[in-house]
Every structure is written in structure tokens, then in C-alpha cells.
Write a structure and sequence with these properties.
Layout: E1 2-9, H1 15-31, E2 38-43, E3 58-63, H2 67-74, H3 78-90, E4 91-99
Antiparallel strand pairs: 1-3, 1-4, 2-3
Helix pairs in contact: 1-3
């Protein structure tokens, strides 16, 4: 199962500060969780088709095979809660989407 997070940065948050936080805090903490198989943050650049800008500045993709275990044991834990508290200081109106691959 995947967790996808779509968001832009809050006004006043610098791109450099956020990218540094992702590399030094977010990646090590979240990738260190046993139930998180893979986790990457992507900065959007441009639309493939059409005019204008992407609707969000960032996309995060988590691969979490044991999503039930993640929800029960990890989500409320100190690691996730600490990272999420910091994340909410950077992200403006993040949208958390739970997905499953169409097979």
C-alpha cells in the first residue's frame, strides 16, 4: 500500500530550509521505521501538458506493505508524531492519500 502526500510550502518557508530538513530529519526518521519499505520526496517542476504551474509543490510517496501495523503501532509513536509536528510547520494544507496498486 502507498501513502501519497501532496502539498506546497507555507509562505515564509524557504526551499533550502525545507530540503535540508527532508535530508537530515525526515528521511532518516521515516526510512528508519521497519514498516516503511521506501520513502521519497519529490519537488514538482512543471506540467507535462497545458499551461501554468503544477497544483502542488511537492509529492511524497511511501511504500508501506504492513499499513495496518503502521496505523496501529507507528502513526501514534514518538518518531512519526515528532516528524509530523515538524512537517506541519513547513507544509500548507497537505493532502494525505492512501493508495493501492491496480493489478
Amino acid at each position: 500500500m502507498q501513502l501519497i502526500i501532496l502539498y506546497s510550502l507555507k509562505g515564509g518557508v524557504s526551499r533550502e530550509d525545507f530540503h535540508n530538513w527532508v535530508r537530515t530529519i525526515d528521511y532518516p526518521a521515516m526510512r528508519g521505521l521497519a514498516r516503511v519499505e521506501n520513502f521519497k520526496t519529490f519537488e514538482t517542476k512543471k506540467l507535462l501538458m497545458g499551461e501554468g504551474e503544477p497544483s502542488v509543490g511537492y509529492v511524497e510517496i511511501f511504500d508501506i506493505p504492513d499499513f495496518d501495523g503502521f496505523m496501529v503501532e507507528d502513526l501514534g509513536g514518538d518518531t512519526v508524531q515528532g516528524v509530523m509536528g515538524q512537517f506541519m510547520g513547513f507544509a500548507d494544507a497537505p493532502e494525505f492519500i492512501i493508495c493501492d496498486e491496480v493489478k
